[in-house]
Amino acid sequence: MLTEPQRRLLRAITRLLLPRIGSDRNLPLLTVQSIETADWGSLTFAGQRHWMTLVVPDLAIADVPSFEALHLGAEIVAEARVVSVVPVGSGVVLTIAVMVVETGH
Question: How much is the pTM?
Answer without folding.
Answer: 0.84
